[in-house]
Write a structure and sequence with these properties.
Length: 196
């Protein structure tokens, strides 16, 4: 919930939200073409869902889920879900850390979803996937080995959506994983830098 709604053209400060920012078909128009900035608490993140197409700018945004609540299973700093598309423009210096315990991605883009980092981007992004029980990509799939059904460690094949980079300076770093039993999957990019 937001502590006081922003003015129509005002930058949206994520620190003013009690439970992160969740954007879907019901409130998409409130956020389309807006700028999100500020520093989030460790338990909050940004979720785009409901099959929407959304245009956002992030400017000096810090979402550090690294040590956040384990109850937010698989939550990355930014999650794109339910066949949604995010056109993301980078301004300033931005840092997105996925959750360690749940293996959250910096930006989670799973199958059926699309992330397009726009050509208008002249800022930077550092996206780091979570370590711990299941590792995740800096930008891409979430963890590969934790089953929410029953909390067991079972092999789950991660899925990857569409990622298009047209601008900005990006560093994406995948997490390190440990697993139980015979499950050994490593799919994260250790370090990727794009200068476009």
């Amino acid at each position: 919930a937001l502590k006081g709604a922003p003015a129509p053209d005002e930058k949206i400060d994520i620190s003013k939200f009690d439970d992160g920012i969740k954007i879907d078909g019901n409130n998409r128009n409130d956020y389309d073409y807006k700028t999100i900035t500020g520093t989030s608490s460790p338990d909050n993140n940004l979720i785009i869902s409901g099959g929407v197409t959304l245009h956002l700018t992030i400017e000096n945004l810090v979402i550090n889920r690294k040590d956040g609540s384990y109850s937010n299973l698989r939550y990355g700093a930014i999650e794109i879900r339910d066949n949604s598309t995010l056109y993301l423009t980078l301004k300033g210096n931005n840092t997105l850390n996925g959750n360690d315990e749940s293996g959250g991605a910096g930006i989670r883009v799973e199958a059926g979803n699309t992330l397009i980092i726009t050509e208008e981007s002249d800022g930077s992004l550092k996206a780091i996937g979570g370590n711990g029980r299941g590792s995740a990509a800096g930008i891409g799939a979430g963890n590969c080995n934790y089953s929410a059904e029953g909390g067991s460690y079972d092999q789950i094949k991660p899925s990857l959506g569409t990622i298009i980079v047209r601008g900005g300076t990006i560093e994406a770093q995948g997490g390190n994983s440990y697993t139980s039993g015979n499950v050994v999957l490593t799919f994260s990019i250790v370090s990727l830098k794009l200068f476009l």
